[in-house]
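Extended Data, record IS1380-like element ISEc9 family transposase
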Amino acid sequence: MNHIKTMLCGHFIGIDKLERLKLLQNDPLVNEFDISVKEPETVSRFLGNFNFKTTQMFRDINFKVFKKLLTKSKLTSITIDIDSSVINVEGHQEGASKGYNPKKLGNRCYNIQFAFCDELKAYVTGFVRSGNTYTANGAAEMIKEIVANIKSDDLEILFRMDSGYFDEKIIETIESLGCKYLIKAKSYSTLTSQATNSSIVFVKGEEGRETTELYTKLVKWEKDRRFVVSRVLKPEKERAQLSLLEGSEYDYFFFVTNTTLLSEKVVIYYEKRGNAENYIKEAKYDMAVGHLLLKSFWANEAVFQMMMLSYNLFLLFKFDSLDSSEYRQQIKTFRLKYVFLAAKIIKTARYVIMKLSENYPYKGVYEKCLV
């Protein structure tokens, strides 16, 4: 437990290497929490003992922390974005393999699957995968796990995903669990041929967007579903090129959903999925996800889960102690304002006092925590 506390403290300040744990060894505040920071080599050996069962315990803890945040928020409907991100690997880490790696083509990598709650900016669950794993692999099982852990009679869940998750198995899983979904569809010929038919009527909306609806199914699907089609005019230079195809002057986008939102609202709601990409970037840059890598695959999974646990603990603190306007501020901003500050630890017979500078502008936050 001591090593886990050490790692959580390290992630709290944003370490990207185990060597940086030495920064905590003589920290008086860390010592007051009865944490004995060991040498990085000792912590590395401890992390090397993790396996599937023990890393799953961290995932269970992350679910509990998220559920606590969800309960505090009193939300009755949430949107969960599922997305994946590539983590480049330079060494000989277990489980890393060549796969889709846009920044470093041909390099070995990991592929991490994330699930975030958009309304709370919170990490729900996720896991590290081999770099050659297909985007949607494990998504249906993850969705079942999420619903089993957080669903209640008074909570409505909508799952939002990009076209990498456009798969009937995933859709059927969500439907069977009584949840909503909004997934960007791939532009298969079955859909494009119907959307470009001259009999289809599009309704004009905002920002040059036009929308319509189709109730149809793909070739191997079991039943018809609601597809929202959005089209926008191509740039003038592209439209100037002659084409014999009907509707070729437009770019078409398809979305499958079981929500009751109006067509244009479906498209606008999907566009908010970009928030999840920002949350992933924050996890990578502010929590150092993908920077602190060890040889063992399960050690890397354990480190990832601890990083995301720290991420949610930041959110819990912000929810309880900060003004709502500061809740969505980035972690690096939070650290500069509330973590990386000068203070003196004073011990008396009965108390341990953290004395802050008289000019420190956010002293009220700490005073509020002690009330």
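Summary. The first helix runs from residue 2 to 13.
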